[in-house]
Specification:
single chain, 91 residues, Gyrase A, domain 2, 4-stranded antiparallel β-sheet
Length: 91
């Protein structure tokens, strides 16, 4: 079980392009077309399965929103920050 990060830890560890919204970290990735976004969402899904840490993924016409939180811990942990960094590496 991972420990919750403090507000200061979240602020200093948040990867580029991500923002904190309540108990989640969130990023919207933009794409030139719908299918490019769908393919990216699929890659994120595969990564989530490998790491066993699953985000909320919202696919829109030219963007994909990714949200991470650690539900069992009730907020943001190192696992969420790590997954955000790995997700950034996919782009």
């Amino acid at each position: 079980m991972a420990d919750l990060l403090s507000d200061d830890e979240i602020e200093t560890q948040l990867p580029d392009g991500w923002e904190r919204i309540d108990d989640e970290i969130v990023r919207v990735y933009e794409f030139d077309d719908y299918l490019e976004g769908v393919a990216f969402a699929s890659e994120v899904g595969e990564l989530a399965e490998e790491e066993f840490h699953h985000p909320t993924i919202v696919i829109r016409y030219e963007e994909v929103e990714i949200r991470f939180t650690s539900h069992e811990e009730g907020g943001i942990t190192d696992d969420d920050v790590n997954m955000a960094e790995l997700t950034n590496d996919l782009r």
